[in-house]
Write a structure and sequence with these properties.
The protein has 134 residues and is an all-alpha fold. The protein is 76% helix and 0% strand.
């Protein structure tokens, strides 16, 4: 069975900061696209899509960190450390897959889905609350 979506975007992922919500939606869309290519057994295309996902994550983290600094977010240091750790994990995973030290499989997608949605619903929700109170 070919699935055309891995994550259903819904309201619970909205933090109330427009540019961040748009980037989160883009990340979900990119992960869904990667999953579709994977599910269609188009592995090389899926790996290219996964690379775009990783680049988008990095750019998203930079944008969030700039906003945290600009607005004086009190938990910015902790959030930055979390970003650094997550980005390192994701880049290392992508590197291992590209070098055939790991394979792109459902466990990889489950990991990416979990960290993305957990990050949005926990750390970024807190950031959204702070930014919306300003």
């Amino acid at each position: 069975m070919i699935l055309n979506k891995f994550i259903d975007w819904n309201e619970k992922y909205i933090i109330g900061v427009d540019f961040i919500d748009k980037q989160h939606k883009l990340l979900v869309d990119q992960l869904n696209t990667t999953f579709v290519f994977f599910n269609e057994d188009k592995i090389l295309i899926a790996l290219d899509a996964l690379e775009r996902f990783v680049v988008t994550i990095e750019n998203h983290f930079i944008a969030e960190e700039n906003m945290m600094k600009k607005r004086g977010y009190p938990a910015a240091d902790e959030h930055y450390i979390l970003h650094t750790k997550l980005l390192h994990q994701i880049k290392k995973l992508y590197e291992f897959i590209r070098e055939d030290k790991a394979i792109l499989n459902l466990e990889v997608f489950d990991f990416l889905k979990s960290w993305l949605l957990d990050h949005i619903q926990q750390s970024d929700k807190e950031l959204g609350i702070f930014l919306n109170l300003q």
